Amino acid sequence: MKTLLKIAWRNCVRNGLRTIIVISAIALGVWSSIFLMGFTGGFVLQRIDKMVALQIGDIQIHSPSFDYDSDISNTINNQKQVNNLLKNSPSIEVFSERFRTEAYAVTAHGQSGVKLLGVYPEKEKQVLGLSERMLDGTFLESNLSYPIIVGSKLAKDLHLKLNAKIQLNFTNINANQISKNFKVCGIFKAGDDAFDGYTVFTPMRVIEKLTNQHLIHEIIIKVSETNTPENVAIELNKIIKDNLVEDWKTRFPEVAYGLQMMDSTMYILMSIIVFALLFGIINTLMMSILERKREIGVLLAIGMSKSNIRRMIVLESIIYGIIGAPIGILLGFLTMQYFGAFGLDLSAFGEGMEAFGYDPIIYLSVAPKYYLIYAIYIISATIVGGLYPSRLATRLNPIEAIRSI
Amino acid sequence: MKKVIETKNLNKTFGEGDLLVQALNNVSIEITEGEFTALVGPSGSGKTTLLNMIGGLDDPNSGKVILNGQDISTLKKSKMTNFRQHNIGFVFQAYNLIPVLSAYENAEFIMLLQGISKSERKKRVFKLLKEVGLEGKENNKPGELSGGQQQRVAVVRALAAEPAYILADEPTANLDSKSTTDLLDLMYRLNQEEHMTFVFATHDQRVIDRAKRVIYLDDGKIVKDEIR
Fold first, then answer.
1. Any idea where the domains of chain B sit in the sequence?
2. Would you list which residues of chain A are within 8 Å, Cβ to Cβ, of chain B?
3. What dotted CATH number matches B3-227?
4. A-to-B residue pairs, Cβ atoms closer than 8 angstroms
5. Pick from A67, A136, A206, B144: CA 20 to 30 A from residue A303's CA?
């Protein structure tokens, strides 16, 4: 084996330029796909993180029937008990109770259906990071009687500015219409048009004054740092029986789907590159075998076994991968470190991206497991890539091969 | 004397139908230990086919090949490789060394495949390289040696493995006359002193002149077997 490796290595060194080209192709292929993977990963993760941090929270609790019928009467069951349980749970950092209903907003410039959320501003601020995303005004820090904050898209659609008037219409638990004029005290921008164009917040005290009731439809939770939303949700579901506790992935499967999609995208990207490299390697090896027909003929004639010839050629192939893949992975890793820390600024191209909830600065990110998987992929590809040419080599007739020029 | 090569009624055809070529036609030869024999004939006479048969590189359509006492038709292909490795030394036309290995590494190559110890390999290679006048060239790659020198390394490679006989296929085809004479002198000396059996397939009159036995082939038949 040592001799085979020596010959294989020297064969690679002998045609230095070709070896450098193949290794560079492997390294470049690996690097560029890691970059693409980092880009895709950063893009998707950032969007998901942002949605969770600004819109969803880690865990949400609703009445089990809330999803089928978001009627105002579908409040959280056993509110006090739930409140106590949440307060005493060490895995929960903070939670925020919400009133939630569909409302109809009217201004001098237009109208729109909205989701009206009545919240405790101080708690809400701790669960969601929306208060840091205020374009104008404050997150309900207002002495107005009927303050409201609206998303930037809604503000744009309805021509709303700070202190502008907006009338909200909704029904109370007895199906009586409530109609009230609010004043805009803040405009937020979560960076997702679907959210920014549809969501308004007002303090719980305002809702209580309007409905004369304390109605809680939704509780959003931020788990403490050492816990994952999934585990805490399972734990809470065990103790909170008559309400539905869902982590964000369960609550918004379409968001979680983004994660799965990303995983598939990574594998597809890797496979495409590996597939392309495979053909490059096969091509190179076949060329080098045709050039060495005579040599291989001699080896066969003097008693080197076919399996050893095959091994020698596969070893050459593996050498390409063993050098090329780590170089590509290292370059990819360094690129990820750089753009992971400083971000890749796409604002020059990214005007439209924000509308879909994407940031103009992408912080590239590739999960460490992909580096390892990629390395295994490439090395396997070089083994597979070496097999066909090696078979070709052993099919040579020694005497004919020796006589060929 | 011990028979190292024996063929009985060898037949070999190539192609089919109108293109059928009878490469060997009932060829029976016996070569004993210590011979210095040339297989001679024009192109297409069957000498290379015969050399392939006695080199264990090709199978006959009918007939028997017994090499160093072993009927090779009974050997499996995989065993045949091993048999060649241990029994037959090959010297081909020039430039048939492994270009990426040094003269020393080329010379020890077959012994490596045979699993001979490092010290034994070193001993044999240094002794033989000295004998053929290549002392000091151990670390040169084939590309840094002349055609004659390369061919001498090839002879060392074949000899070092201690085969039963050495087959040389046009060994002088690419050599100038000085190198040809040197190589033939070397082989002749090895034959005289060490009783190494040599069989050549050749066109080269200089080789034919030195041979102790010349087997003439034409159209796949032995037309003359001359012992000098």
1. 3-227
2. 3, 6-7, 10-11, 13-14, 294-295, 298-306, 308, 397-399, 402-403
3. 3.40.50.300
4. 67
5. B144
Tally of CA atoms within 13 A in the half-sphere of A69 that contains its CB: 6
pLDDT at position A336 is: 93
A117 Cβ neighbours under 8 A, 6+ residues apart:
A98, A99, A100, A199, A200, A201, A202, A218
Phi, psi dihedral angles at A366 (to 5 degrees): -130, 130
Question: Looking at the complex, does the CB of residue B96 fall below 8 Å from at least one CB of chain A?
Answer: yes
pLDDT tens-digit map of A354-399:
666 667 788 888 888 889 998 999 999 999 999 999 998 888 877 7
* Interface touch B100/A7, C-beta < 8 Å: yes
- Give this prediction's pTM: 0.74
Q: Which of the residues B12, B92, B144, B203 would you substitute to probe the A interface, choosing the one with the greatest number of A C-beta atoms within 10 Å? A: B92
The chain A residue lying nearest B51, using CA atoms, is: A399
Distances (CA, A) of A121 to A51, A186, A241, A260: 19, 12, 28, 34
SS3 A326: helix
End-to-end CA distance of chain B: 17
Counting as low any pLDDT under 70, the low residues of chain B are: 94-95
The span from the first CA to the last CA of chain A, in angstroms, equals 29
Give the β-pairing of A110-119 and A199-203: parallel
pLDDT at position A216, please?
Answer: 93
Give the pLDDT score at B95. Answer: 65
* Facing residue for A298 by CB, picked from B86, B92, B113: B92
Say what the pLDDT of residue B199 is: 93
Check if B126 contacts A (Cβ < 8 Å).
Answer: no
Separation CA B186–CA B184 (nearest Å): 5
Q: What secondary structure does DSSP assign to A223-274, as a single string?
A: E-TTS-HHHHHHHHHHH--SSEEEEHHHH-HHHHHHHHHHHHHHHHHHHHHH
A233-270 residue pLDDT tens: 998 988 888 899 999 988 888 888 888 888 888 889 88
Domain residue ranges of chain A, discontinuous segments joined by +: 2-52+256-403, 64-242
Partner A contacted by B101 (CB < 8 A)? yes
The mean pLDDT of chain A is 89
What per-residue confidence (pLDDT) applies to B126? 92
CB atoms A7 and B86 under 8 Å = no
> B169 and A10 in contact by Cβ < 8 A?
no
Residue A267's Cβ-side half-sphere holds a number of Cα atoms within 13 Å equal to 5
Contacting residues of A for B100, CB less than 8 Å apart: 7, 10-11, 13-14
Beta strands in B33-134 (DSSP E): 36-40, 62-67, 70-71, 88-91
Q: Hey, which residues does A314 pair with through a beta bridge?
A: none
For residue A301, give the chain B residue with the closest CA: B57
SS3 B79: helix
Burial (CB < 10 A; 0-12, 13-18, 19+), residue A143, is exposed
B106 contact A CB<8A: no
Among partner residues B55, B78, B105, which is closest to A305 by beta-carbon distance? B78
Q: Does B139 touch chain A (CB under 8 A)?
A: no
The question of ipTM being above 0.90 is answered as no
How many angstroms separate the CA of residue A294 from the nearest CA in chain B? 7
A258: buried, middle or exposed (CB in 10 Å: 19+, 13-18, 0-12)?
middle
pLDDT for the residue numbered B21: 84
Quote the CA–CA distance of B125 and B129 in Å, as a whole number: 6
